[in-house]
Amino acid sequence: MRQLRGQERVITADRQTSWAFADAYVAEDDTLHWARDRARDAGVPSVSPGTGAALRLLAGTADAKAVAEIGTGTGVSGIYLLQGMRPDGVLTTVDLEPERQTFAKQAFRSAGFAGNRARFIPGRALDVLPRLADGGYDLVFCDGDRLESLDYLAESLRLLRPGGLVCFEGVFADGRTVDSAAQPAEVIRLRELLRTVRESTELVSSLLPVGDGLLCAVRRG
């Protein structure tokens, strides 16, 4: 019997259990639970604990002082990012719905972050991002419209300093990204994003199996 290649390994029940354990490894406090409840009430998806922990780790590893976030939601991902950033770091977070940002502001305050640690900008991401400074960010986290993923990537490459990170949430699309059946345009766009990031000579990338898939890449110096 020939040896299976990595991508052909069977996903066993044990492996699924291990992934679930890894995603639940991080304990969340009352503030994060509150933000999740607000997201659930509003019908807004929020990052899993495993994804949040990965973002916190990446922000800490990058010693991030300036982070841009596409998709504020109710503040779950923002709390994790702020926890990993430098104490003087500022999170610039963009969302189309100002009422969501109101919840996020309350969550950040409850988590103990000073008001000057976050800059909230309501609006469509592709209208806001061009106004942000070239090379001024250590990390860009993208959790917005999947149809705009490639545009977010282009903007991120402009915004990031050499050695900075870009991360995309939800690239598994609940398993549809690898499903051979006909898929909607947003899933096709995610496949294009994955291929573009993997083939880019400007980026060093990895696809992390946390939450619904976290695609991460470092901009080469």
UniProtKB/TrEMBL annotation:
Coiled coil: none annotated. Gene3D superfamilies: Vaccinia Virus protein VP39 (3.40.50.150). Keywords: Methyltransferase, S-adenosyl-L-methionine, Transferase. GO terms for biological process: methylation. Pfam families: Methyltransf_3. CDD domains: AdoMet_MTases. SUPFAM superfamilies: S-adenosyl-L-methionine-dependent methyltransferases. GO terms for molecular function: O-methyltransferase activity; S-adenosylmethionine-dependent methyltransferase activity. This is Putative O-methyltransferase YrrM.
